[in-house]
Amino acid sequence: MTDMNFKKPLILALLFLLPVIFLLFLYPSTNNYNALDIVKGNVKDISNFSSKDGEVYRLKDHITVLGFLGQNPNSNAIAALNLKEVIYDKFQGFKKFQVIIVVPEGVEDNVALLKKELYQYDLLKYWHFVYGETQEIKDLYKSLRSEVKLDNTLATNHVFIIDKELNQRGRLDDREDKEKEKDFPVYGMYSYDCIEVAILKNKMAKEDMRVLFTEYRQKRKGDFNSTKRRAEDLKNNEQN
């Protein structure tokens, strides 16, 4: 057999094996995928909150960005507009994604003013306002893990990520690599400040929301052990 005749099948074999080897390298990374941390379980659902369009909205079975704009939602228009432009516009239309904004009963006129700001260019199909009594709102907020308190109007600029199983998602350890190297004390990120556009863009949109959607895509394919991951997160949560 000539050298040319020998090289041809060898080249063909290499061309066939290289993609297989590449996939084998990817396989472990898929199964050891680091999901977005569960920072709090058993978040209260919102089925007892009312809406003005007659729909009953729920957190369960949805990937939700949950916000609280209080008695004067239009005065928090900057936070709402940042949330729309950076988060909502990027993820609208993703399977089961929604933004839920909680406000007290009786502020419909103020909400209408805010909607005029938000709805200038398009109707927000996956953005919903829900109304509750003061104690209902406080109880819902109390079910979240947060280092930020609601103000006296029941508002905050921070929003929360809630998964389909009513778990609050975020970061149990939000230290930068340099901080870890210097052994800084552990601190987390449990909510996202809508006034800080850099946090919305770089942490919430580019990383945390994207990671969560990837997790659910892997769950649908059967490539993700959510039970094991939840147990690990809750154990870490108890230690912090």
In short:
The chain has 240 residues and is α/β, with parallel strands linked by helices.
Question: What does this 3D model show about the protein?
Answer:
By secondary structure, this protein is of the alpha/beta class. It folds into two domains: 1-32; 37-239, Glutaredoxin. 45% of the residues lie in helices and 16% in strands. The chain is built from seven helices and seven strands; from the N terminus they run αββαβαβαββαβαα. It has helices at residues 3-31, 77-91, 108-118, 134-142, 177-181, 197-221, 226-239; strands spanning 37-40, 63-69, 97-104, 127-132, 155-162, 168-170, 192-193. Strands 1, 2, 3, 4, 5, 6 and 7 form a seven-stranded mixed sheet that branches. Helix 2 runs parallel beside helix 6. The longest helix has 29 residues, at 3-31. It is globular and about 85 Å long.
Primary descriptors:
single chain; 240 residues; alpha/beta; Glutaredoxin; 2 domains; 7-stranded mixed beta sheet; 7 strands; globular
What is the CATH C-level name of the largest domain? Alpha Beta
Task: Name the CATH homologous superfamily of the largest domain.
Answer: Glutaredoxin
CATH architecture of the largest domain: 3-Layer(aba) Sandwich
Tally of extended strands? 7
The assigned structural class equals alpha/beta
How far from one another are the termini?
A: 69 Å
Shape: globular
**Poorly predicted segments:** 25-32, 227-231
Count structural domains: 2
CATH topology of the largest domain: Glutaredoxin
Percent range of helical residues: 40-55%
Radius of gyration, taken over Cα atoms and rounded to an integer in Å: 23 Å
Number of helices, where a helix is a run of at least 4 consecutive DSSP H or I residues = 7
The fraction of residues assigned to DSSP E strands is: 15-25%
SSE order:
HEEHEHEHEEHEHH
Largest sheet, strands/sense/barrel = 7 strands, mixed
Mean pLDDT: 85
